[in-house]
Amino acid sequence: MSVIPDDLLYSEEHEYLKPTDEDGVYLVGVTDYAQGELGDVVFLELPGEGESFERMDVFGTIEAVKAVSDLFAPVTGEVVEVNAALDEDPALVNSDPYGEGWMVRVRLADPSELDALLSAEDYRSLVGGD
Amino acid sequence: MAVDHALARELPPGEGVLRIYRWQRATLSFGRNQPAKGRYDPMAIDGFGVEVVRRPTGGREVLHDRELTYAAILPLRNPDGLRGTYGRINRALVNALRSLGVESTLAPGGGDPLSPDAGACFRAPAPGEVVAAGRKLVGSAQRRIGSTLLQHGSLLLAPSTTTFAALRVQPGPEPGGGQGISLAELGVAPLPFARVGAVVEAAMAGSYGGKWEIDELRPREREVAERLRTQYESSDWTWRR
Fold it and tell me: Which residues contact residue B185 at a Cβ distance below 8 angstroms, ignoring those fewer than 6 apart?
């Protein structure tokens, strides 16, 4: 059974948005369900700080043993920090997807886009049948 | 690569594609994310008359020489999911090989995951890959493209005429290097390529069911493949890492 914390927002592409102490700034990563489906993560290609993305742009790729998947920006915004720890240890995405396995810290450009994301309950129904 | 990528981008709902092919010239393919710059020597590759390309799929380098390549393109939301599809295709390949008189199995799970810079694809089997006589016979890798899954695989028919070592910046055997095994090395008499292709196709059709037909690229797929060709022919893409 996948862990789906109640206080996060989710995209249908299995990314999450986690609020930070700074207003309008969120941590983005992939969900526990996604990491479980992918298997052992061996490589991540993430953007540089200062890069901006529109919602649903590909902002990076994740490779798990043999499978490469695109990472889709769940919201429009600017990358203000990249998790450098993943360079050394990409498996943090597997061991702690919502904690040390976060990927980028993003400053949201348009708060209204949050309305289009899924609540924990909605996301649970999306993956629940799988 | 461009055609496989285009088929994945343009896959109509409710359909899947199996494409079976071989390469006009021996070709070294790199995995989507594996480091190649400074490890492989473009001059040596050219000198041996080998082509080079970077795949959209993950995994490590493959020397496509005397082998069969397949590309399986399926909706991502199929009942098997990413990992299940890997298992289903590999089990179908084990059945295909059995009908050629070759006993193969799936490599057991466990062990450390192999990163994209862990050495050539056939050096060590990942869990669930097809092995015979303890060595890897089929290498495979996946890519999720939107809501579609592309899986590439390479079945070794006979030993390659070129070695990886000859193409590397620092020639020499790979550290810790096991290697793959081909049908010829397993004692299978040379078979027409079309016969091996037909056996693979029949096993996949048996596994997936449904209605199968031989088809040409559709105009839209051809157009997208032509656009993607620029990327796959670009040395910036091939030598990106």
Answer: B158, B159
